[in-house]
Amino acid sequence: MRLDDSAAAREGRYAEERRQGEAIVADHLEHVWGWTTAAGRVRAARRATFLAERAGLQPGIRCLEIGCGTGEFTVRLAETGCSLVALELSEATAAVCRGRVGDRVEVVVGNIETGEDLAGRRFDAVVGISVLHHVDLDAALSVIRSVLEPGGRYAFSEPNHLNPQVWAERRIEFVRRARKVTAHETAFRADTLRADFEHAGFVVDVCEPFEFLHPATPGPAIPAVEFIERLIERTPLRAIAGSIRIAGRVPGP
């Protein structure tokens, strides 16, 4: 699903994202996304590892994290020793992120669709968790492409539209509201997401559905669920996994 890219629609989306950020901070809504549960911590570690490995994060690498939110993954990415800039549209959540990372990370309040807050900057890597489905993908990919050095790498994790819960969050109003999903949030299919990246001039090394471990999984059940997960991911049922991971590079040396 493509977002309405009219000026009025864009400003409406930006305003809604800022309101969402204020609500996350004021009402302590971070628990909705499940990163603090036992299974959520496993899921978060998986994603952080994927980003770090695929984007080659290490000391000396200049990395841009887009949509850093309150810094849940910013903290983990900073541990790689890379030179990290974290971009966030919401002033409220950016302030929380800044408080968590201190002077280890430069936190910038800005907009990945316009790139105006990144003027003159270049990066070796661009990464993000659950951010591309909030934005105009074509506009964001254009900016990402422009700030990456030749041969620069990217890695993202996004919701899978074919997953039943994700589908319900986008299609059923009371589920959407309960899950704090904004009206303009989308989701992706692996095949179309790959095509969008390739159309924008990126080389795609991997683009695949992954993960059946739900954040609500009780801690003692996690090993069993992970075993079942590995089996399912070898079957066609992998198509309905909860998320999609995509990584690759821009052409260059």
> Tell me, what's the shape?
globular
- Please compute the radius of gyration using only Cα atoms: 17 Å
Beta-strand percentage range: 15-25%
Strand order, largest beta sheet: 3-2-1-4-5-7-6
Distance between the termini: 34 Å
Average pLDDT = 93
Protein structure class:
alpha/beta
| Major beta sheet summary | 7 strands, mixed
Report the total helices. Answer: 9
Which percent bin holds the helix content? 25-40%
Low-confidence stretches: none
CATH C-level category: Alpha Beta
Q: How many separate structural domains? A: 1
CATH architecture label name? 3-Layer(aba) Sandwich
The overall strand count is: 7
Instruction: Tell me the quaternary state.
Output: single chain
Quote the CATH topology: Rossmann fold
